[in-house]
Amino acid sequence: MRAYIISVAGAAVLSAVINMMSPERWSKYIGVLTGLVVAVSVGRPIFSLIDKDAFSRIGIESGTVTAESGTRSFYDEINKELGRRIEGDIKERLLSEFGADCEAKAELSIAPNGQVDGVRRIIISGGHLDNIAEARLREIYGAEEVIINGSEKLYQKPE
To answer: pTM score, two decimals?
Structure first.
């Protein structure tokens, strides 16, 4: 029981530190991921009561990610969900800040290890946006490329 309490407290403290250190533009997404880690650490005994192989099916053993075949699909699902959330955020931001009801598609840059490096390309359709909106998207999401209504605008990613 003591080890369980220490692991949950450690996950919560680590989550708080990571949330404080994360950049403002990624804070929502980091918060979701660290919340997931805390939830898994809290629910770990429940999973072990229900099914002893619950963590091995998604590629997690003893709290660490393994290099099994299930790990790649686990990262792929996380990356797809992150992409969907970024697309929804872009759509909401364009509507609230610029009054443009547009559809957004975000293409993420994925590292060889399966983790997200950032947003590679944003494709906007269904609305007319000016250079200010394009600059705002590049600033917030760090996109290398912004395509609006089929007109391609290539920008260098700020370093």
So the answer is: 0.50
